[in-house]
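Quick one:
INPUT:
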């Protein structure tokens, strides 16, 4: 009895997912910490390049304003994902607005809640933290954790399909983040799979030649207003 292409793809992805999650769980702590620090540095360099992150703080400790306003959806780390929580705090201190995904109960796209610095948190039915009093937003860009990936930009996740359904309508910039050990020669791809714009690991931006969408420029507060 032959199996369909969809069944074969699902079986291949399931086997890859099990192997990569097992590898990720066993990653030595020192190696993990070094990789996460490198990822954070690569991302901050990319955000500065896009004008999304203020360059530095002044002598009073206050950051300047970024050249462009952006709402970046990040993630709350689970199951051995790169833990960038300290970086997320620093990005907000330097002018970025962040959001967290909230997983719907039904098979639907993710929703995103603004995540202010110091805001209250709650845990959803999946054990994932999200803002306690969600204010729903539409992000300009997504930072998506990857179990595995290939250099075409295709991502291997946990198999729930939430990001697949989200990417089907999302029009902003997309960044995949994962350990370089999750790099695969080629993932099986079906009609609903959508490649990410960039893939970042501890080795850098692996798809740096691709153009990404920019958020709109921050209005000049000194300019005359129509309102």
């Amino acid at each position: 009895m032959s199996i369909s292409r969809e069944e074969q793809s699902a079986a291949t992805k399931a086997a890859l997912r099990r192997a990569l999650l097992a590898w990720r769980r066993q990653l030595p702590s020192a190696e993990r910490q070094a990789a996460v620090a490198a990822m954070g540095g690569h991302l901050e360099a990319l955000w500065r390049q896009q004008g999304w992150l203020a360059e530095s703080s002044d002598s009073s400790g206050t950051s300047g304003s970024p050249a462009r306003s952006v709402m970046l959806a990040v993630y709350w780390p689970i199951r051995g994902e790169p833990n960038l929580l300290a970086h997320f705090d620093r990005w907000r201190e330097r002018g970025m607005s962040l959001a967290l995904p909230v997983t719907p109960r039904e098979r639907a796209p993710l929703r995103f809640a603004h995540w202010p610095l110091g805001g209250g948190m709650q845990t959803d039915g999946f054990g994932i933290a999200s803002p306690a009093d969600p204010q729903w937003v539409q992000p300009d860009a997504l930072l998506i954790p990857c179990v595995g990936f290939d250099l075409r930009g295709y991502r291997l996740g946990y198999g729930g399909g939430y990001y697949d359904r989200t990417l089907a309508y999302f029009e902003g910039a997309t960044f995949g983040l994962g350990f370089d050990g999750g790099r695969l020669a080629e993932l099986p791809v079906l009609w609903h799979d959508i490649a990410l714009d960039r893939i970042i690991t501890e080795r850098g931006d692996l798809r740096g030649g691709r153009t990404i969408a920019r958020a709109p420029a921050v209005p000049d507060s000194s300019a005359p207003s129509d309102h």
